[in-house]
Write a structure and sequence with these properties.
With 468 residues, the protein is an alpha/beta fold. The chain contains 18 helices and 15 strands. It has a five-stranded parallel beta sheet. A five-stranded parallel beta sheet has the order 6-13-7-8-9. Strands 10-11-12 form a three-stranded antiparallel beta sheet, with no helix packed on it. Strand 8, helix 16 and strand 9 form a beta-alpha-beta unit. Bound molecules: flavin-adenine dinucleotide and iron/sulfur cluster. Iron/sulfur cluster binds next to helix 3 and helix 4.
Length: 468
């Protein structure tokens, strides 16, 4: 029987009333005592299921053993063999559905707090200098989110000259413009991005591939392979009356204004954002939680999340749902807006359909079904839609215009081979949200970047053989 005598350690968090007034990081890092106590809970399983639960297969018992030996540097080395972003993953990965979901201690008790341990190690360690032997090959990376970062790092460490192109003026993808600072401080993100510079990746911002330059240009410039990690930044709207009113935002726009353009510091920074009293955020994922928690910090008196299913089906990280509740966000489960109302072009309210749960759908989750004739009305002045996104078609349209055989599915996702992430065009690979394998999240994007990097190196070797 698995013994679990020491309780799982819980990280401190800032007081909700205090954190609602600022963007300081909510959840604190474990203390050294907590780290040692938590590491001692790991029983070093012979067949560690936690590794299977991690999309990049970090040697979890390996790094926890190093913590037990009080060798944090070694723990950092073990993690970075598989993941370059431990400080980010430790903070934002949905561990409760991945490594911690498969941890053996979770069967009869509570799993090891793997994410919190990873974060602690990540924050205290850095990538070590290693001799990179140049391969003579040149690879381009499109997009600087977790998929692009991981592919770039692995390709650079394999000796290739790697050049990254990012459309925005700052690197990081959703880690920068989507996830707010109170979950992922920017100094943590910048530090992890610095790793790319250290290993020689050339970083270019303000370059939209498909507009500033094209894929053909990249091949003509001598790139032999391309990794596309351009994400899925095109927001969906609900298609209901009133979505064209002032005060309706996609969550992407709302969050980008604050996280990237610093609208919370307007007029010091020139991008404004609506500052109202009552906001409604629609959706049940991390994006909805972030939108709501940002609104609260902007000073909205009442922030409500409307979700068409029940709490049990919410795809957001459990910790974020809990934090949102602590911060006074209201939840309207089993409700879905059917109209946004306006006066003089401004949002003044919304009508919501009351739902119930029916039979499970293809995703295995129970389908929300409207209860006939049952609606409610709520006064609001801001309506934020966080119901999903799909890839921006700009890049793939430009590829089509260049007659490149880069195929997308009917929703606009790039078609790739599952294991290698090769697209339908030789030399081009894609991963992360633009061609998801499983859930769209940071660690799956990283896993895709990793597999693609390996496949690209293999592909480059075939080019050498062909030349010889
Ligand atoms: P992205 O992170 O989207 O990065 C793509 C980059 O490519 C962007 O910077 C974009 O500007 C750039 N780009 C696009 N087109 C071009 C072009 N033509 N030329 C050059 N550059 C281009 N996941 C978690 O695991 N945990 C969380 O807590 C979590 N919270 C989230 C909160 C929000 C608000 C959102 C939106 C997502 C969240 N996710 C979370 C999901 C996760 O962030 C994404 O799955 C992940 O970032 C996808 O990585 P990516 O590299 O594929 O793309
Ligand atoms: Fe340790 Fe849990 Fe992994 Fe076993 S499954 S090695 S207890 S973290």
């Amino acid at each position: 029987m698995v013994k679990d005598k020491i309780s799982r350690q819980i990280a401190d968090a800032l007081d909700p009333d205090y954190r609602n007034t600022n963007f300081e990081e909510v959840e604190q890092t474990f203390t050294k005592d907590q780290v040692m106590a938590e590491a001692s809970r790991c029983i070093n399983c012979k067949k560690p299921k936690c590794i299977d639960g991690c999309p990049v297969h970090i040697d979890i018992p390996g790094f926890i053993n190093a913590i037990k030996e009080d060798d944090i540097e070694k723990a950092g080395r073990v993690i970075r063999e598989s993941s370059l972003l431990p400080s980010i993953c430790g903070r934002v990965c949905p561990q409760e559905r991945q490594c911690e979901a498969t941890c053996i201690l979770g069967i009869k008790g509570t799993p090891v707090a793997i994410g919190a341990l990873e974060r602690y190690v990540g924050d205290l360690t850095d990538i070590e200098d290693s001799k990179i032997i140049p391969s003579g090959h040149k690879v381009a990376i499109i997009g600087s989110g977790p998929a692009g970062i991981t592919a770039a790092a692995d390709l650079a460490r394999a000796g290739h000259k790697v050049v990254m192109y990012e459309a925005l003026h700052a690197l990081g993808g959703v880690l920068r413009y989507g996830i707010p600072e109170f979950r992922l401080p920017r100094n943590v993100l910048d530090r992890e991005l610095d790793t790319l510079r250290k290993i020689g990746v050339e970083l270019n911002t303000n370059v939209i591939v498909g507009k500033s330059i094209t894929i053909k240009d990249l091949f003509e410039d001598g790139f032999e392979a391309i990794f596309i990690g351009a994400g899925a930044g095109l927001p969906w709207f609900m298609g209901i009356p009133g979505e064209n009113l002032n005060g309706v935002y996609s969550a992407n726009e709302f969050l980008t204004r604050v996280n990237l353009m610093r609208a919370n510091q307007f007029p010091e920074y020139p991008t404004p954002v609506r500052l109202g009293k009552r906001a409604m955020v629609v959706g049940g994922g991390n994006t909805a939680m972030d939108g709501a928690r940002v609104a609260k910090r902007l000073g909205y008196e009442e922030v409500t999340i409307a979700y068409r299913r029940s709490e049990a089906e919410m795809p957001a990280r459990k910790a974020e749902i809990e934090h949102a509740k602590e911060e006074g966000i209201n939840f309207l489960f089993l409700h879905s807006p059917i109209e946004v109302h306006g006066k003089d072009g401004q949002v003044i309210g919304t009508t919501l359909q009351v739902m119930e749960l029916g039979e499970p759908d293809a995703s295995g989750r129970r389908r929300p079904v409207p209860i006939k004739g049952k609606t409610i009305y709520k006064d609001i002045d801001t309506f934020v839609v966080a119901i999903g996104t799909s890839p921006n078609p700009l890049l793939t349209k430009s590829a089509k215009a260049e007659d490149l055989p880069l195929e997308v599915d009917r929703k606009g996702y790039l078609i790739t081979e599952e294991e290698t992430k090769q697209t339908t065009m030789k030399g081009i690979y894609a991963g992360g949200d633009i061609s998801p394998t499983g859930d769209s999240n940071v660690i799956n994007a990283m896993g895709a970047g990793k597999r693609a990097a390996q496949a690209i190196t293999e592909y480059l070797k075939t080019l050498e053989t062909a030349k010889a």
